[in-house]
Design brief:
about 80% helix
Length: about 210
């Protein structure tokens, strides 16, 4: 059941999936060229943010344009809980694909550095926190209001990361070298899953109370 709902979302974005796949491949080397001091972290983060939010927002747009489709899904033996959870799974799969693409990038562009599992976990935590606020807002406020949040995230991300990774403003992460990789992975994944779980519970509650008629 959950697989069918996730597949449905990928079918909705199939026309743009290739474009976003290419974009996620090109963003890291382009950012490396424009901001070499950021190595691959900035490019990977922006690729993940763009891919997840662009595709997720497109699915939300189509569901907003065709509200009867969601009503029909709820009329079928698809619990609203599963419909909400499928969105989170959709984003997790996109993140996994972005990791794979970035891994290929690091092989083709060695200056990006090796694929660091700690970086992947930290970025996964950042994305999880963003989505943990985005989805409840989407189900509570609707597409029309939430799209402004999407625009802010997409427009602000390059500017914010460009500022943070300037040599004079760079955030230092040397302290992470004193923490074991295992601790970072376990803590990062646990916090991310906890944020996702709380967010999913809130989103489900909002969606179950929404009137689809």
């Amino acid at each position: 059941m959950l697989f069918s709902l996730v597949k449905k979302d990928f079918l909705i974005v199939k026309k743009y999936a290739g474009i976003m796949l290419l974009a996620s491949f090109l963003i890291p080397p382009v950012m490396l060229w424009r901001a070499p001091e950021a190595t691959g972290a900035m490019g990977f983060t922006l690729a993940v943010i763009f891919s997840i939010f662009m595709l997720t927002q497109y699915v939300a747009l189509k569901e907003y344009q065709y509200p009867k489709a969601t009503t029909l899904l709820c009329a079928l033996p698809y619990p609203r809980k599963m419909i909400v959870l499928s969105k989170y799974c959709f984003c997790l799969i996109i993140y996994g694909v972005c990791c794979l693409v970035f891994g290929i990038d690091t092989l083709l562009f060695p200056r990006l550095g090796a694929f660091d599992i700690r970086m992947a976990v930290i970025i996964f935590l950042i994305i999880s926190l963003l989505l943990s606020f985005y989805f409840p807002a989407l189900y509570r406020l609707g597409y029309e209001r939430t799209k402004f949040v999407f625009v802010i995230i997409i427009m602000a991300s390059p500017v914010l990361f460009g500022f943070l990774f300037k040599p004079e403003n760079a955030i230092r992460f040397e302290f992470l070298d004193t923490v074991s990789t295992t601790a970072i992975i376990v803590l990062g994944v646990m916090v991310s899953l906890a944020a996702f779980s709380i967010s999913a519970a809130v989103s489900i509650r909002f969606f179950e109370k929404s009137d689809l008629t």
